[in-house]
Amino acid sequence: MYQYILRRILIFIPMLIALTMIVFLMLKMAPGDPIAGRLMDPNIDPKVLEQQREALGLNDPVHIQYWNWVTKVAQGDFGESFIYKGREVSDLISARVANTLQLGLFSLFITIAVGIPIGIYSARNPYSVLDYGATTFGFLGLAIPNFFFGLVAIYIFSITLGWFPSQGSVSTPGITGLELWINKLHHLVLPGITLGLAGTATYMRYMRSEVLDVLGSDYIRTAKAKGMTENSVLYKHTLRNAMIPIITLLGFEIGALLSGAIITEGVFQYPGLGTLFINSISNRDYPVIMAINLMLGVFILIGNLLADIFYSIVDPRIRYE
Question: pLDDT tens across 46-61, in order?
């Protein structure tokens, strides 16, 4: 198992290098002049533009530009933002990444805490009224776009009922301690449920399918024939095997939640990486765009790596020769 994990970590390194190349080349091929966007002056002298391009190394060969960029990124230097004058990109991201991680973890908790138990119950009681209701919820959860569900949630629970705030992460600046965390949690409810809706539906359907498949296996029927109780069969035999595909899905879910948070944060005006990313795209703030794209890609790679590692732990049969 340790050799397998080591191989997966070694594979992670060239994938990370490829990711940096893709992010760099995508931004190089993007329309518009990054220097013009940085200076934000339509009447600027072309000579000044050329001087800026030379100073920033944009006239160097592409491979030299890539090497200079990736060596700075390795040191945590993403450059300066074009929009927020004098602000380092790393400072902008560090000020917002905690909010995005809180939103992602909260929605992941909702996804697991709701989706998996409902999936197990539906599998143990197939074709019941609650199973049909859960199946309907699953289809709706996958069919309804997050932004639409978010707008409906804002109208019902914020504007009409006034139960939850519709934007922001904190109502009163300057509060601390327990009051701060309660206030943050209050702001997380609507965007967290919105972000976790599709994941909850996915986990529920996967869990139902896997549990039904395992319950129909010969060794489960043998265990029941030997007199094991339903709960013993479920917790000792069924869930261990049914959870294997779910663990793989969990790895992909980490990246999906963080990338999906971009749209959700835009709907709720939640001060995380999503709103920063949208503003950066609108204003062609290339350093911020590259940094956030790279971060999202790294999170997806790490999620897949963790999924492979957990997969090998719960199923020792997994080996890559």
Answer: 676 677 777 667 677 8
